[in-house]
Amino acid sequence: MGDFEAIDSLLASIGPQVDLPAPEVRRALRERAQLSKAQVARALGVSPSTVSGWEAGRNPAGEVRNKYAYLLDGLNAKLTTDTDTDTDTDTVLERAEEAAAAAPTALHTDTAADVAFHGPGGGDEVESLAVPESCVLCGRPAGQRVAGFAQHLDPADCQDTTAKEPPAPVTARPTPDPKPSQSEAVRAKSPARRAFQDLSGPTDLIHEAVEGALAAHHGDVEGAAAALLKRAIPDAMRLLDDTRRGARYDVVAHPWIPDILKKQTSRGADQIWEARPKWTRTRLPPGLHEVTALDINGAYLSALKTHLPLGRLEHSTGLPHDRRRAGVHLITPPDWEHDSCLPNPIGQRDEPGPLWVTEPTLRLLLRLSSPKYGLCEAPEIHESYTSGASENLLEKFRIALKDARDTAIATGDEVTLEYVKAMYSKFVSTMGESNYNRELYRPDWMHIIRSQAFANLWMKAFKAHDEGLAVVRVMGTDELHVIGDWRRVFPEGRGVTEVKVKDFYTAGTDTAGEER
Length: 516
Known about the structure:
Helix content is 38%, strand content 17%.
């Protein structure tokens, strides 16, 4: 094909874009068909978060727009055929429009909104199950899944499992211990807590990925591990989508971002200061000392529990800190007078004056300036870019990874352990401008999660100091060097709430005055 023929072919392919119904109607059609966002996303080859964006006001383009329009037209035709038995011209599409008009308007705009809040209960997706699953509340088979968990919609159907004629279980279940422990009895009396913590589905995604990789490489552990590391980013995004099913917040993956969160040059950085610690004590107590270098386990995994902004970052000046919101803040940090024994909470900074910090750094400074600690003055807030926030936005995602990590450690499964570590570490590192993760562009989240890891490490250093240990060094996200009996302060192990020994060394001055 010649150059002009190729151009003619390209021009011929350009035509008017197919019309789409209003965003509220798109959502109403999908819900009336009892389809989840994940099902629609799989059919169209996109992510569930993209479908959320379309239902919140964004519009697809190109070939995927044609596919989406074809799907919506098909849903309208299918639902009309199934529900209309006469010649009435009132189609399902018209009914969906009426239902959307009568429902409360979602909080969104065409270009700027980043989240639709559907209210408690109102936004939970009800997914019909082809094969019943055990209800997380009563254990009996349920035909629906709500907020990612199988459960009965009618409380009357949620009967006690001790009924005289219980139906046969859908899947084989282990026989319960006739004498459950006290902790198990307490959990059994707390349906809400069990429902929130039941993450067998997401955890199974990790297990299935590992088993599939091992099978594909005929049991070659190194080959399977290498393959899993390469797919860690898309797998993390798939796990995130799975754990977000039925969530009350529909997070748009590519929101508007202020200039301070954009790189100043192609190879440069943005204007956000993450407060990464890099501190070494200048003077040790007299004598020689055995120093223990401790490794903080799963630093980034623990930092996923942090206050993340949900919607578009909105600019404000001269306002006091609002704990219901989160974002980035231009502050003048307070003077720090404890550098001889504790690192500065904002890290080692050479230039004085105001700087942009994240939510965890600001909250740490405000905490340390409170009467309980009294270690510094409160920072002065000049400007902020914030949005309504949630500390539990990634909580199911975090717990799924933590459960898989704990199981891998308990069973000695190093393949799964390295795979899980790659999932959460690469998930955090590729949220910003990255060629490896185009599904999620949230540099604000990336900075906030990193800063939360630094703030967590700082609080561990303070705990060591407060318990009488001498803090010698604090580095990065997971390195804490101390002098003294650290085991009475920190539990030892590989869990995310534990620490492990990284190294031992001797430091200080001996009786002859020689420094080591």
